[in-house]
Amino acid sequence: MLAVWGYAASALGYALLLLLLLTSRKSGLAKYLLILATAATCVWSLSPFLIGEMTVERLIVFDNVKQLFWLLFLAACLKDNFTSLAGVLTRPETWLILALPITGLIIPLGFDVNDSWLFLLQTVLALQVLVLLEIIYRQAGENRWAFKPLILYLGATNLFEFVTFANALMVEQIDLTYIAARGFIYTALIPLLVLAIRRVQHWGVDIFVSREVVLHSSLLLVAGCYLFVMSLIGYVVKYYGGQWSTTIQITLIFLSLALLATVFLSASFRTKVKVFITKHFFANQFDYRHEWVKLTQSLESNQPGQTVYQTVLNAFLQAMDYQSGLFIKRVDNKVEYLADQEAEPLCEEQQVVVQQFFDFFEQKNWIIDMAELRTKPYVYEGLKVNHAILNKIAFQLVIPIYRGDTLWGAVLMSNTNDTSRSLNWELRDYLTAVTAQITNFLFHHEAAKEVAENAQFAAFTRMSAFVLHDLKNVLAQIDLILCNAEQHKDNPEFIDDTFETLHHTKARMDKMLRQLSEKNAEPTSQQRLCRVSACIEKVIEQRCATQLPKAELMVNSEIEVVLDNDKFANVMYHLISNAQQATADDGFVRVEVSHEPQSEQIVVTISDNGSGMSKAFIQQRLFTPFDTTKGNAGMGIGAYDAKAFLEKIGGFLYVQSEEDVGTVFTLNIPAN
């Protein structure tokens, strides 16, 4: 009696929903198919009142009629450009979808089959609806919010049907408790269908078969096949089990659910299934549209406090679904670590192998697969490596990174043996494209950083450099006057030189103040023909004479060149003064001038036997603006300014130094 009330409530609810649809002003194919599906569900709810004795065959017929119209509605939702029922029915995919319910309608009418086969058909039919719902939901995109109530309605009803007939298949008869509950369940779910009708303004989703859908749908099919096998086992248990059949049936159901949960939660199982599907069902290994969007999002998702190098490494790892890696840069013959992810630094033996890889990358832009290198070394022609050390290396892929045609660094990646990939032609092409995109992002970031530093220097540093150098020049001249005042204050020639120096000092101060008031970052260039040795000699006598050891000037040969005398004097003062400060009082500072006719250059060398500098300091700090070892006594821009001046006039500055031995600055000045 309770079951009758449930079916009556369901029939009344779907009848009211049918009236609502008929009075709606919306038009379109989806509306009419929804009216048919709702009407079929209403008739299904009235089935206990329309027929006398409810047999399994009659129950299956009404179920298949209901499922037929709902599947036809879902078939119309698979594309968004259907305008007529004929357009839906002319698609082969539609008849493939409708094949199961049509078969379920024909079999009871023309054949005498066992009820178990009918239960199996209904179980597979419910599973088919669940698979279609998953495809529609995953491909709905921005319309997922609108489709969600429909997915929940059909998903809940068909999941209940799946459980009902899977259980009937196990015990070879339908549990009347499930049949009695159907009416109430369908009635309770009507609000979801009403909400779906109100939400969806445009029925239809343009479907394509993606790898993710195939993977998840395949897992659903695996689940269905597994439940089918369990059903057969349940049937055998019931037939032979006697009084233990119920206990064994419950145990098998529990074990089946536990095993299915393990299957769906197992990452390695899903990976193996995905690899199998990729190899056998797709021409391409990757869904490139999805992979490219994922790579772009990975590069844009820079976490707070995360360096750009860590972002780059994470993008490489995500592109390959790998777990650990190192991002390294080649600096001369050493390795500089930029970022790491669950990876240890390289030991000395591994660094030797990596250097051999770098030598190979200088010749060939080729990704190295470590497994292939171990088994097929002849593929990597020209790569000479110690295979005994190679076996100790944990990483699996080595991807070179180039800046233009120059090798810049490399990414080393590794993964578990179960999920690592062997390189083929497609994977190499994919990694080449990924590397091009990531390196473009990396070098664009470095270029932007360099532009920002140059802008900062242009706004502040040049002004500070000019002020500092002029103040040092003025101070040196005043120091020179004070040092000689006691000894030569009664000498008229000294008095004349002093006044001349003061006039020169005042002129420089006036010039500096005028430039500061006019906000000029640097003075206007005043180039003229001059002798380099005369300029250097004046710097030594007037600005560097108060410091020890006294600089010695040697002129081998020279010709006149065109220079900005003031700027060149500032450069020489800074380099000579630095050499004096780095050298003990009993040491030496020598300045040598030579003319090289072959190269048309004037070569000026400033050598000392002072404290010297390390190679790392020269590479990383010497020419970096604002980086000084003098504390508040310096601005850290003198060496940078000297190098910039020489490069601006077409020359260059070269430094050789060794700690506790000395330093040699070589200035090459164009003489043409």
From TrEMBL:
Transmembrane segments: 6-22, 29-47, 67-88, 95-111, 117-137, 149-170, 176-197, 218-236, 248-269
Organism in which the protein naturally occurs: Paraglaciecola agarilytica NO2
GO molecular function, one term: kinase activity
Catalysed reaction equations from the record: ATP + protein L-histidine = ADP + protein N-phospho-L-histidine
UniProt signal peptide: none
Keyword Transferase applies: yes
Histidine kinase domain residues: 466-672
Keyword Chaperone recorded: no
EC number(s) stated in the UniProt entry for this protein: 2.7.13.3
SUPFAM superfamilies in alphabetical order: ATPase domain of HSP90 chaperone/DNA topoisomerase II/histidine kinase
Keywords: ATP-binding, Kinase, Membrane, Nucleotide-binding, Transferase, Transmembrane, Transmembrane helix, Two-component regulatory system
Protein's recorded name: histidine kinase
Alphabetical list of InterPro entries matching this protein: HATPase_C_sf, HATPase_dom, His_kinase_dom, Sig_transdc_His_kin-like_C, XrtA/PrsK
